[in-house]
Amino acid sequence: MDDEGFLLAIAAAPADNAPRLIYADWLDECGDVRGNYLRIIMLLADRIRRGIPWEDLKQSFEIAQAEAPVEWQYQVGPWFTVTLDSVQPEQKIHTIKAIRACTFRGLSEAKVVLDEALKRGSSVVAEHLTLAEAEQLRKNLEIEPWPGGTGKPPCRTSLHLDNSG
Question: Do 62 and 127 sit in the same domain of this protein?
Answer without folding.
Answer: no
